[in-house]
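A reminder before we start the practical. When you read a complex entry, don't treat the lines as separate problems. The point of joint prediction is that each chain is placed relative to the others, so the output describes one connected object in space. Small molecules and nucleic acid strands, if listed, are placed in the same frame. In the example below there are two entries. Take a minute to note the order of the lines before looking further.
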Amino acid sequence: MAKKAKLTKETFEKAEEIISFHGYSSLDELVENLINSEFEKIKSDDNDTEEQADKLTGLGYIS
Amino acid sequence: MKRREFIKTVGATSLLSVPYMNFGKGKNAGARMIVLGFDGMDPQIVNHLMRKGKLPNMQKLANQGVFTMMKTTIPPQSPVAWSSFITGADPGKYGIFDFVHRDPLTYFPMFSQSATTDSSWNIKLGKYDIPLKSGEVQLKREGKAFWDYLEEIDVDATIFKIPGNYPPSKSKQRTIAGMGTPDITGGYGMYSLYTDDDEESSFENEKKLSPSKLFYVYVEEDNTVKAELIGPENSLLRRDLEDDTNALEEEENSRNIKIPFTVYLDNKNKTARIDIDGKEILIAEKEYSNWVEIDFPLIPNVSSIAGMVKFYLLNMGEKFRLYVSPIHISPNNPALPISTPESYSKELSDKTGLFHTISLPADTKALSQGTFSMENFIVQSLSVFDESDKIFDYEFNRFLNHKEDFLYFYFSALDQSQHMIWALTDKSHPYYHQKEAEQFGFIKEYLYTKHDEILGKVLRQVPKDVKIMLVSDHGFAPFKRKVYINTWLAQEGYLVPEQKDSFSEDGYIYDNAPADWSKTKAYGMGLNGLYINLAGREGHGIVKPDEKRKLLEELKYKLEHIKDPKTGETIISEAFISEDNFSSDYLNRAPDIILGFKRGYRIGDTSAIGGIRKEVFYDNNDWWSGDHCMNPAHVPASFLANFKINKQIPSLKDMAPTILKTFGIDTPATMSGQSLI
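Here is the predicted structure of the whole assembly.
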């Protein structure tokens, strides 16, 4: 189901610049891509408690 | 078109007029400045050593201008504090509040300074998965850096390893990333230890050293040792070709690139030769080698990752123990962005030799974990300091020759060392060891004097009109007791653990729901952070927005009255409510309360990632015996300059406005600090 979203003029202009720069075919494609990419970030390795523990161990702050 | 390019295009005649016409900003002709950043330099210790006559150059600088303590950030953690230095603002403006933030949706801990995303566009070729577009590393620090303002008026600057700038923000200035830079495995310093000691190579010890690697090796009859260096995972290998059988038999490092090496021991002369990747390295026992560059092939003869390591032959003879440093990104051919322009890291390497690129180069955890003795750690720390000193000489000479008009140079040694050597001079510390204290108790004073000598070079050689600032980001204090704040929250009924075994003795909670979120009102995450489980913000928030303030004040009161049963004293001198202390721009990333511990107290290890242990308090039985993640009022930073300032107690956020004012730029509206001149 298609849903509409309102953008301010400034944001829309930025979106047009991104579309032109990266070669997206439409605003819909850009929005779709950004949402999927943000969703992937939520699911990414950065959301791993053990990995974060390893990083803090690497820095020395936890042992 | 950028202004610098524009000026080059229109020629020198328009040089003077363009800045005023286009930007309303001036440039103080001939202005020049050097800033030395000594991480963790404590003003009380400086004052004490100055009075003893041990820091003649700092004394001279103070006589010319000023020496004072300086307000650090809430909380006084390096990435937070140096970001304030960079942007001239408080954390609310640049969005870094701790080493560790949390994802509000999932409650997972997240590293605050940068985020890495993999390429999502790949093509499968044979056994490889080839990315068509590279993944990205994103700097999470917001706000404009002071060197960008300098660039706009054509003041050339070199920024060496300022924390809070990995990956380096886009700039035409010469910048090298510092704290936050990973090793080539993506970690923050995973070393390898090769040992023939049965006891040391036990499973328990292997677990203790994780995520670093422990390998049991044999010394053959001909006095050789054969082993492998485990490199980064080969991300190009297709995962979809791994069948179940492989998965069952898979060793932990099966996807990692391995580089074999052989050690030839000469026990009579206490020396060894290491053959690796076509190179021969000669080292003596207890000697820390030079850098060794190693190519880790992704696709043989087509693609590889450049890394570099140092070897440290800890023991030979009765026991064989070989330490191999974390695999640093090579500045000659960096696998990830570490400098602007990209060629700068190679230029430095060509001129000064290879240099450490990892976040915090001295291996504090190798000492904490018993791999290093105190002597080993000190040798390594001094080696890191000497390397920085050598690079400083190169950059300082460039500055003297007018290649740049602004130089910022960072030294990490005081911070990293004070974390580890505090107990050597503190008999009241739970981890005080008399033997090490007698042997190495001098080292703190020695390190301060070594840093004083760096300043001495500057004072001897720079013209008098060059402005000099010497700053630290925070001071130091003992760290004697560990506090598990989630345990306290659970005892008080604010946090309801999902399972009783969440109170495991090792404190780790591996799942993403350490709490029953439907009953939990608050949780701790990070080295100073406490979050409200706020409805509409957190994934399963239950505290209504109109109840938040009351809960914050209730928690603040209770936190400031927690008492250590061992001493009967309170442990938090101030619980800072974030919305009362920070700008609102990036407040959504902030903990709701910042815990301002008293000297001697810090968050417990796994509490920083949401962990819970049985008790709230534990003695700190670790060489990591000094710290600064406390109430900023107890660990102020240091400020010295060769000019007078207009404030009695400056603040870290005043640094960027002061730098800009030196070059004729008024304080931008985005900065909340004030120029000191």
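Discuss with your neighbour: The interface with chain A takes residues 99-100, 103, 105-106, 108-111, 115-118, 120, 183, 187-190, 210-211, 326, 359-360, 364-365, 368-369, 416, 419, 508-512, 527, 605-606, 608-610, 622, 624 of chain B (CB under 8 Å). What might explain this?
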